Amino acid sequence: MHEKESHLTWRYFTKFAGLEEEILQEENGLFEHYQFVADPGQEPMRIDKWLMHKIANASRTKIQAAIEVDFVLVNGKGVKSNYKIKAGDDVRIVLPEAPRDTEIYPENIPLDIVYEDASLLVVSKPAGMVVHPGFNNYTGTLVNALAYHFGNLPQKDASHRPGLVHRIDKDTSGLLVIAKTESALTHLAKQFYDHSIHRRYVALVWGEPDPESGTITGYLSRDPADRRRSKNFSDPEDGKMAITHYKTLEKYYFSALVECRLETGRTHQIRAQMASIGHPIFSDEMYGGKEIKKGSALPKFKQFIDNAFEMMPRQALHAAELGFIHPDTGQMVKFDAPLPDDFKNLLTKIRNYSGTDLKAK
Fold it and tell me: Is residue 96 helix, strand or coil?
């Protein structure tokens, strides 16, 4: 390890062990997660390529990111990605956090089940609930609740996400479909892959979009300046295609209620793309929505906004509708979830302030 790294605070983003969250912690020592010894007959091979075949769900990019910060040691020393493995090499993967038990433990957490049959169920996830276990969120997740209520559910791979076909952010509320059979999981996963799923979100954004409706097209990838965020790029080589259709439902001068229909489903898609056109989601700190973007400079207005943030400290985003072809019947089914209380109360406050008297969409 580099001497200068021994007492630094690590701030890095990794998908290395299937994690997709920022890790922020004091470096007081490293913990061994994997250990391999190259076979006696091992032919020379780049270490990043070699490790791809040793660790499930570890892409070359993930491995190279770990190598770059000396989390991959060969015979006790850090190496570069182009190091050639040879017979007898002792390879260890070390990370700042201690290895965790990856078993999914059932927890008796109530579920808001919108629909259920023998093949699938649709749940309305509350804001604040993480969908699946990950760094710093090993319990209290939707998956823990599913394990309690439904036992063993199918999973697409070895990522310990039984029943999950898709997910929404921790602080986004709304609908998710869960597969109860292998057949349903495969059928639904293909619909998501084909972008044929109907998904309608409701969001409160800063400012009034102009035009009132439109389509945001770009290529989403991790923001190089902050790996927790996604960024909307114009070059297809910089990310994956992302398409969001938006429509303004109500205007409040300094903000607007919009619906967003997803044609693709990328990480933080709505949050990143609405921010890219200058209309971040209200109270979304990660994408600039926790700052006053429009409105009055008077102290009274600032106090009003501060009170609104306290009322709804999470991003004002709700997965309101979900539609798909049912795996068994072949028929299109659609489900909806009303706005949760925090969102409804926020809209009431804003409507009263702006003089808008409209019912929640």
Answer: coil
Q: In angstroms, rounded to a whole number, what is the distance separating the alpha carbons of residues 184 and 109?
A: 24
User: Per the structure block, which two tokens stand in for 308?
Assistant: 């609104």
What does the domain layout of the chain look like in residue ranges?
3-95, 113-192, 198-354
Residue 52 φ/ψ, nearest 5 degrees: -60, -35
Catalytic residue among 169, 171, 223, 284: 169
pTM more than 0.90 = no
Question: pLDDT digit string (tens) for 232-275?
Answer: 999 988 889 999 999 999 999 999 999 999 999 999 999 999 99
The CATH class that applies to domain 198-354 reads alpha beta
Report the SS3 class of residue 61: helix
Instruction: Check if CATH label 3.30.2350.10 holds for domain 113-192.
Output: yes
**Could you tell me the fold of the domain covering 3-95?**
3.10.290
Q: How far apart are CA 28 and CA 361, in angstroms?
A: 51
Q: Which residue has the tokens 């793309």?
A: 273
Give the helix/strand (H/E) hosting 341.
helix 341-354
DSSP one-letter string for 263-281: SS--TTHHHHHHHHTT-PB
The answer to whether the 113-192 and 198-354 domains have the same CATH topology is yes
State residue 321 phi and psi, 5-degree precision: -135, 145
Sign of CA dihedral 283, 284, 288, 294: negative
Determine the Cα–Cα distance for residues 140 and 129; give it in Å rounded to an integer: 7
Residues 107-130: pLDDT tens digits?
A: 999 999 999 999 999 999 999 999
Catalytic (active site) residue 169: yes
Q: What is the DSSP string of 160-215?
A: S-TTBS----TT-EEEEEEE-SHHHHHHHHHHHHTT--EEEEEEEEES--SSSEEE
* Residue 70, phi-psi category: left (phi > 0), alpha (psi -120 to 50), beta (remainder): left
Residues whose CB is less than 8 angstroms from the CB of residue 3 and which lie 6 or more positions away in sequence, other chains included: none
CA separation for the pair 324, 331 (Å, rounded): 8
The two three-digit tokens of residue 130, written as one number: 């993480």
Type and span of the H or E element at 323: strand 317-325
Task: State the burial class of residue 258 (Cβ atoms within 10 Å of its Cβ: 0-12, 13-18, 19+).
Answer: buried
